[in-house]
Structures are given as C-alpha cells and as structure tokens.
Amino acid sequence: MDQGGVVVPEKEIIVRMEGIVKRFPGVLANDQVNFTLRKQEIHALLGENGAGKSTLMNILAGMYQPDAGTITIHGKPVAFHSPRQAIDAGIGMVHQHFMLVPSQTVTENILLGLEKPRFFLHLQEYDRVVSDLGDRFGLRVDPRAKVWQLSVGEQQRVEILKMLYRGAEVLVMDEPTAVLAPQEIDGLFNTLRAMVAEGKSIIFISHKLQEVMSIADEVTVLRRGKVTASGVKPGQSSRAELARLMVGREVLFRLDKKHVELGKNVLTVENVHAENDKGFPALKGVSLHVREGEVVGLAGVAGNGQRELAEVITGMRKATQGKVYAQGQDITNQSVRNSIRQGIAHVPEDRTHVGTAPNLSVTDNVIMKTYNQAPICQGWILNTVAAERYANELKEAYDIIVPSIQTPVRLLSGGNLQRVILAREISSKPNLMVAMQPTRGLDVGAIEGVHRLLLAQRETGAAILLVSEELEELLSLSDRIYVIYEGQIMGEVADGDIEKIGLMMTGTRLDQIAVQGEASNG
Amino acid sequence: MAETVKPVQTQKRLFPFTVKVEQRLTDVPKWLPPVISLGAVVVALLIGAIILALAGGDPLRAYGHIAKASFGSLGVFSDTIVKATPLILVGLACSIAFSMRLWNIGAEGQFFMGAFAASAIVLIPVLPAEAPRWQFILLMILAGMVGGALWGFIPGFLKARFNVNEIISTLMMNYIAVAWNNYFIFAVWTEGGFQMSRMFPRNAWLPRLADYAKEVTIFRGLTTHGGLIIALIAAAVVWFILYPSQWGYEIRLIGDNPRAARYAGINIAKHTVLVMMVSGALAGLAGMSEISGVVHRLQGAISPGYGFTGIIVAWLAKLNPIAVVIVSILFGALILAGREIQPSGVPKMIQGIILVCLIASDFLTRYRIRLVRAVEA
To answer: CA nearest B184: which of B118, B247, B120, B260?
Structure first.
C-alpha cells in the first residue's frame, strides 16, 4: 500500500542498527541483528514471543545497552544510555504497559518529567497544544480528562501523544494491539497512517500476522534473536510464508476439527450476577450453556467480567444472584473443592499467580488437585513415590521440558508452565473445562500444542468453555461464541461472523446489529 | 567520539574486573544452601571479631571464652541444653507458622500464656499437692499447650475472619500476655508481697538428670530436665507435619502462593487458625517446660526474650525442625556465655550479625556473582 505520492525509489534511511548483540543470563537475545528503518515507513518487527523483538527496540530506545553493534541515526553514530537520550534523538517508544498517572489529566501526563514548563503550569495553554497535536495526527482525546476515566485505547493515544510532544520522529510501538478491541485497532491503524503522512516513521512490534500484513510497508522477521528475513514487502509475501520465517516451519492455521456428537448440557449458567474484587458489579445477569463435546468461546475485551464468570463457575467467587448447574446439579456458590470433585477443571488466566506455586517443584504443582486422593494420599501421609511417578508420567505425556521433576516451576518457560497446568487439569479427566487465555504469551508452536490438547478434550466428550481475547483462536476452536461486554452477554454467534463479534465486543447487542443491518440495507 | 571516551574508561577502571550479578536460571545443587549458610556464620563471626577488636577486646579470647563457658564441661553443656530447650520449642513454633508465611511474632506472649496456664494447674490448684507426678506433668503439658494455642487462636481467627495483620496483632498480644501474668504474680498468686508465686511442690517439677545422680553418678549436679524430651518429641512431630504429611503439603502450598492454594480447593482460613494454634501451643509448651523444669514458680522474669530469639532460630534453621534443634543448642550457648562475658551485649551482637548475614546470604542461592574481566577496547 503506497503512502500517498511521497514514494520516491530510495527513501532516506533514518535508523540503522548493525551487528547488534545482546546477551542475558543464559540467553542470546539478539545475535548480530541488522535493522534499517526508512523515513515515512511502517516497519513491522515480526517474531514469536522471546524472539528478541522487544530487546532490540529497547536497545534503540535507550533502555538497554547492546553488548556489541552500532546504531546510527541519520548517518550519525549514537550510543544511548537512557531513554531520555533516545527521545532527544527523536526515538520514542510506546510500551505494552502504559506508564501514566491515573489521577492526573491527559495534559499533565504529557508534560510530566519535562523541563518546561517550570514552576507555573499554564495548563489551558498546554491543553490547546495537546488537542492541536491530537488533531494533527488523528489522536482525538480530551486533554482535560483524567487518565483513569479513559478507555485503554485512549490511554494508548496519550502515550503516543507524549512521545510526539517530546519530538519523536520515530515511534516504536510494542505490541500496540494486544490491549485493543477490533474497532480500536482500526482506529490505531488510521492514526499510524496519519502519522506517516505527517512525516513520522513507525516501528511496529507484533506477533500477529494478520495485522502485520494489513499495516506494514516492510517486515523484518526475527527468530531466536536472529534476523530470518528483512526487507519483506507484505504485498509480495503470503501469510504462510511469513509464518514459516517466524517459526521456522509450517504452521497449520486450520485445525482439523473432528465432528463430535453434542450431548446433554454440562454447564448451565442462569442469570448470574457477581461482584469484582473491588465490590462493584462485574456480572449483570449472565446466562449461557455448554454441552458435551462442545467448545464454547467467550469473546470480549479483557476486564468485562470474563475472569469473574470463570471464578463463579469454578467456586472461587460467590454469585450474588442466579444459578449455576453442572450436569443438572445445582452447584451455585459451592466450594472450590466440591467443584474439583464435580470434575470441573480450571485453567486460570494468571499462570504464575493463581495456576502454580512458583517455588514448589513440578511434582508439587501437578498434584495440587489430587494430593488428597489415593494413591498420592495415604491416610495423613503424602506418598511421594506415587506423586513422583505421576509427575513423571505427565512429564512424558505432555512433553514438559524440565531438567527434573524436582525443579521449581518458576524456572520453567511460559509454554512449559502452561503444559504443567494443562497436564494437571486434563489428567483429572474433567467433564467441564474452563480455560482462560490458555495461549496468552505463548509462542506459535506452544499455542498449536495447547489447541490440540483442547480439541482432544472435546473429542472425549468434555465440555469446554474457552475464554480468550484472541479472536482467531476463538474462531478456529469454538463451535459457538458468546460475546461478553460489561458483564452482560451481548449475543451468540455460531457462524464466526467476525464483524458481528467485533461490534458486540464494543457494546452493541446482537439484536441491535440485526436492526441496524436491516436499516442500512433498506 | 569513541576515541575520546576510551582513555577515560581506562582511567576509571581501578580493577581489571567488574562484578556482575546474575539471576540463577537453573536449580541450585542440594549441597549449596547449607554451605552458603555455614559461610554466612563464618563471615558473621569475622565481622563480630572485627568489632570486638575495634572495641579494644581480643576476639580470639572472647570466642574461646564463649566456647568454654558453654561447651567446656559436662556441667556447662548441660546448662547450654537447659537454655536450648525452650528455644527448640519456640523455634519450632515459628518454623511451622513461617512455613505458611504466617508471621507469628507472638511466641513470647504465647510462651507466657503457656507458663501461666501450666502454673494455674498447681496454683488454683486443679490437682491436690500430693497428686502423683505423672498427673501433674501431663496436665501441665496440656494446660501449657492450651494456653499458648488460645493466644495463637486469637490473632489466627482475626487474620482468617477480618484479615487483621498478624504481625501487629501477635506483637501487641505479647504485651497483653506479660501484663496478664504480672497481674497474677502481683495480686493473685503473690507470695508474701513478692512478685512471684509460691514454689511448686516437687511432684510438679519436670525430672532433672541430677535427680538420678544416685543411680548414675555422672548426672550429679546436671540441670538438664525432661523438657528436652518434650522438645525433641515436638521436633519429630513438627518434622512429620511439615514434610511427609498431607497437611505439610497444604502449608507449603499456602505459604508459597495462597492464591494457588485457594484455586486448589484449600480452605486457607481454616489452616490459618489451625497453624496459629499449633504454633501457639508449641510456644506455650516452652513456657510450661521452663516453669516446671527450671523456675518452679510463676514469676515475671521467666524469659530473656526466648520468643524473639525463636524467630532468629527458625530462620537460621531455614524452618527445618531438625536444624532448629542444632541451632537452638548454639544459641543456648550464646545465651549462657552472655552471663560469663563482660559486657554481656557481645553474644547478642553476635546473634544479630549472624541473622543479618544469614538473611543476606539467601541472595546467593537465587543469584550468582561473577567476576568478569573488563574488556579492553
């Protein structure tokens, strides 16, 4: 896609990184990486988790110093020792996790840490500057709003404005779409294009092929710290080819989903209300059901009640109203232990803080839900021999890569940790599995493994409620998809209509969509 | 630019090495933690020696004196064991609570309540003065445990029910326990206006080695009493709870990650109360053992801060009940030596330095320190 009429055969090179090497204990994060950014280009840095994308960009933005290699900006060699030096040279990075002060206004956040204005904040004046800047780049946001009042998408705009205000010429965006709803992603992409038209250059870190294909002018692919491809033009390259460059082998995008006869209802949720940790209503009358042999997806932007719903079903949170039935039995507000006995498995969203005990061994972690049952439990005593045998069995069956089953799980990679959790949950032969974000943060290979495990569960006749923010994952695994928004189910789709899902994720009810559709057709 | 920087760097570098701290990414070998702990104690003794030397003392003589005063003969070793006995029990009390990350700072108060409850058996009196010894001892043991357990139950319940910070509540309850005790020794059980109760009858005393001097002559004058056996049995029981038992697994799981424990279906509130009660019962047992084995009456000065030293003992022992026994004997020696050495603050200082070094040394099990040759050019 051309950027207006500014395309000249050779665009000016702004950033050139050559032979960048960065070592972390035990890992070579960047190995002789070369990277070139041209003016007015959206350059995607594609790679799996842990491929070294963020490391490379943190080096460019002055957060890390490289062990070897040179960086030149506009042909001049530079060595940044702090993010401030980088921003002075025109490099600004928008991190995945925003660094904003929630109780302050947009303008205050943008001015924070700057030398000017000193002593007296002429805020009205700066409010105007901020809103002018926003208008210029299509980053509409109320300068006087407090940050906590803003949506995630708006907060991201504030972060971008912060960098633009500081005179960034090159914007590094670290996985900017991870936190956004589909419609917000479109908005972001328009903003990025507007910024390029205004003369900025953008580096876009992502592991999402689809986004890279639709936004980038040029792609550099990293794998295990090395560049596997550079100068790739998305138009001239297929998704499958990029995926291969990224993971080093062909990835199956279409999973073979066998036909499974649906059985009776395993889970029925009726008009459930519940509060979040702060005591505010998080679920406002949620009803859904999952049948034997069915994967039911729950789509929604994070924080719309998904976690609370999973916790109500698994007994970790009290419902203030409504009923939950498992195989026809009322299990509303039962204890977690009962829910485990009922055969309800739970893959929690937070692997390290909920799903595992980091300093305990693999063995101790896999027996977490079966330690009080024979053969591991014998009277008051824990049979360590039986526990270790069990752990070794799971290690083999689920390909958990660890030096030994005595290793504390904090030393495991994300993918291996998730395999520990899945091994534990699946081996309990559940009839219902509530899986929350089972592939978040995993690399493509590990994601595929998790997907296969889930589908294998479905084939054994288990019911699966899959909560995910990855639409692609939901679409490829689910038989039906519910969409949740602010604690309410907006509707249900069985045909995988992504536009409908997107609209529901941002708060339009399915019946309203139907009405609007008719109106626009007529 | 690079050329101008170079000479500055070589000037700055005083040593040809830079120190790099790296997180350990693999499991440490089993022998490493004990070796590091031992190293920390050695470093602590060296630091102590430097301070002693700076203060004008002779560190070697001081350490020699400490060793002689506590291990020099069978008699003093027996006294060391007497000092170690309450430390073992209190150390165990802290170990079991700390294993669940329950910061029971109230062992001192639980110790006093155990001593009080055990005394009550004699002083109310629950048993007639001529009751057989086994009845007295058994009842006093039970009373001591109940007294301590009750004092542990209160902060445990408050924590489980209202999420009251147990550090604050247990700490504050120490003062209440001491005041409670004072009320009884000043007003209720006072012996002719003195701030102490009357002496217990002999059949309420834990048997001492010296009592058997007629049969075994070398026991003559040895003060080691039956509390040691109670302490060793308690160590075995706590070891069993913490390691092979199902309950120990639950305690470790809660200690490492309460949210994961809840997710595994474990009732954390129940275990909080139970563990606090067991912890309190062990500290109460220490109080009973001290009252019945050493002091033989209820009075104010029954503890030189055993409850607090127990915290240090538990940490030094890395919460391992067997190690608690060994560390307690070493600390018993330091307490005993405190009476011999002038000024008596020296052993306390050494205790403090050992604790700080030990806690700091834990860093080495998680991180490793490497010397990296500074790269020229």
So the answer is: B120
Asked if residue B142 has pLDDT above 70, the reply is: yes
Who contacts B35 (Cβ-Cβ below 8 Å, separation ≥6)?
none
Can you give the CATH number for the domain in which A104 is found? 3.40.50.300
Where is the domain boundary, A196, A218, A247?
A247
Helices (H), B184-320: 227-242, 246-256, 258-263, 268-290, 306-316
Q: What is the DSSP letter of A415?
A: H
Nearest to A106 by CA among A148, A77, A78: A148
Tokens matching residue A482: 């519910």
Residue A34 domain flag: yes
Give the model's confidence band at A2: pLDDT under 50 very low, under 70 low, under 90 confident, else very high. very low
Query: Yes or no: is domain B73-342 CATH 1.10.3470?
Result: yes
- Assess whether A286 and A302 both reside in one domain: yes
Please count the residue pairs, one from chain A and one from chain B, whose beta carbons lie less than 8 angstroms apart: 84
Residues of A in contact with B265 (CB under 8 A): 315, 335-340, 369
A421 plus A435 within the same structural domain: no
Residue-wise pLDDT tens digits, A19-66: 999 987 666 889 999 999 999 999 999 887 668 888 899 999 998 889
Q: How far apart are CA A403 and CA A422, in angstroms?
A: 19
Task: Mark A455-464 as b/e (b = at least 16 C-beta within 10 Å).
Answer: bebbeebbbb
| Residues A261, A236 share a domain | no
One-letter identity of residue B191: E
pLDDT single digits (tens) A170-195: 999 988 887 777 778 888 999 999 99
Model pTM? 0.74
Q: Which of A428, A444, A469 is the endpoint of a domain?
A: A428
Question: How, if at all, do strands B17-23 and A488-493 pair?
Answer: unpaired
Q: What is the pLDDT of residue A84?
A: 87
Q: Which residues of A touch B100 (CB under 8 A)?
A: none
Tell me the angle at which helices A152-165 and A182-197 cross, rounded to the nearest 10 degrees: 20
Question: Are A291 and A317 members of one domain?
Answer: yes
Q: Which of A382, A410, A416 to mutate to test the interface with B (most CBs of B within 10 A)?
A: A382
pLDDT number for residue A519? 53
Q: Are residues A308 and A397 in the same domain?
A: no
pLDDT tens-place string over residues B73-89: 898 999 999 999 999 99
B264 touches chain A (CB under 8 A): yes
Provide the 10 A C-beta neighbour count for residue A201: 25
Q: Which of A444, A456, A453, A500 is nearest to A475 (CA)?
A: A500
Q: Shortest CB distance from A411 goes to which of B26, B246, B262?
A: B26
Domain residue spans in chain B?
73-342
Assembly ipTM: 0.81
Across the interface, of B2, B22, B265, the residue whose CB is closest to A369 is B265
* Residue A185 CA from chain centroid, whole number: 13
Ramachandran assignment for B347, one of left (phi > 0), alpha (psi -120 to 50 degrees), beta (any other): alpha
Sheet containing A226-232, strands listed edge to edge, beginning at the edge strand earlier in sequence: A91-94, A170-174, A201-206, A42-46, A218-223, A226-232
Same-domain status, A31 and A128: yes
Residues in B touching A335 (Cβ below 8 Å): 265, 267
